[in-house]
Amino acid sequence: MLRIFKRMDLPLLLAICALLFMSVFIILSASSIKLENKDLMFLNLFKHLFAFIIGTTMFILLVLFDYKLLSKFWWVLYGLAIALLAYILY
What is the DSSP string of 67-89? Predict the structure, then answer.
């Protein structure tokens, strides 16, 4: 379990949390001025918190992921990238 915390970038995690708390206050203050319905104000807050939870979960999963595994399947990833680029082109 301690191995997981050694691989995490603690300053980055603290910066993300600080930005989250600042953005919550900004969203609340901006939405409380123009909305008379308080339910909509909290809907914006819950959408923001939901996006934060999804992003934090992805951050933790990517920290736990062994990127050396990708080196075995580089040709699949390369082919997928070329296919996506061709899809965007046409």
Answer: GGGGGGGHHHHHHHHHHHHHHHH
